[in-house]
Write a structure and sequence with these properties.
Layout lengths: L2 H8 L3 H9 L6 H14 L5 H8 L4 E5 L9 H15 L4 E5 L5 H9 L5 E6 L7 H10 L4 E5 L9 E6 L1 H14 L5 E5 L5 H12 L9 E3 L4 H13 L9 E4 L2 H13 L9 E6 L12 E4 L2 H17 L6 E4 L2 E3 L13
Parallel strand pairs: 1-2, 1-3, 3-4, 4-5, 5-11, 6-7, 6-8, 8-9, 9-10
Antiparallel strand pairs: 10-12
Helix pairs in contact: 1-2, 5-12, 8-9, 10-11
Length: about 350
Amino acid sequence: MTIEEFARSVGVSTATVSRTLSGRGPVSEEKRRLILDRMGELGYVPNLAARTLVTGRTNTVLLACGEVPALGDLYTLEMIRGVQNALAAHHYGLLLNAPDRADTGVMAVVTGRAVDGVLLMDEDDTGPDPLLLAQKITERGIPCVIIGHRPIEDRPGIGSVVIDVEASGEAAAHLLLERGHRRIGFIGSRSPDKLLSRFRATLEQAGCSLPASQVVIAGKEAEQGRLSLHTLLDRQHGTGPLTAVFARTDSLAAGALQAARQRGLRVPEDLSIIGHDDVPFSALTAPPLTTLRVDCGKVGAAAAEMLLHLFRKEAAPGVRIFYPELVLRETVAEPRQNEL
């Protein structure tokens, strides 16, 4: 079916169909909804190559996420799902690019005009400033949104979606301190990490140290969490047993739960454990995991919607910040009195 045939079947002009598909020019909401509904009913698929030549748009967005997410990395997978769902609602496709977010790989796609916009995931808190790459992208006329832990300067064509992981570190530290814990371990996924820095600083402000011997930098997956807790427990000789552990991801925390069982430790009676992210399985662990919730799907959707606004030039990009929410379940308790 051609666009002319489709327009006749709907009872609108081809220009109205083109404006609806391109997102450019005035179309009433009633007609836009009619056209989109009829596309689904009739199975009309526009000729993307021809539409790109006419509109200058590919209806595709590039997500540069640094590395291919493993199946155990539910945090990144949930975020990708949020991005994809938000884009699909506006008939945009998603292209995933993961060559360590190298400038060359991203810029090759941008220079070839293969996408309409770029989402940059910036999880490396101390790595290259993502703003430098974002500026290179916008210089090619392509808008960009950065998803990360550090807000960026307000620049034309560049948006920022920030997850405040420092607030997560502070909240976890306060919870453990309030419960009476003083010998605390940390299982991380990267170093340096803003979350770890704030976690340590908050503990130190209360007179509770977090020495390097009580920190293991592992990865993101459950098996790494299991091995890391064994490492922390093996380091305890002469320093007294740990009474609590904060894990950087829920997958790491799930692995720590398994290691605790293997060592004959009861959670939370012998060892309290906190996770981070509140991915779907976190309420199903045994016992259910106390964690810091970050709605990764909403974060991804917010970044995609910000990019769509940049396409339409509807508003200045600005910064959107997501704050963690403490989810109290059953893996945190006061330490036993004989261990204080």
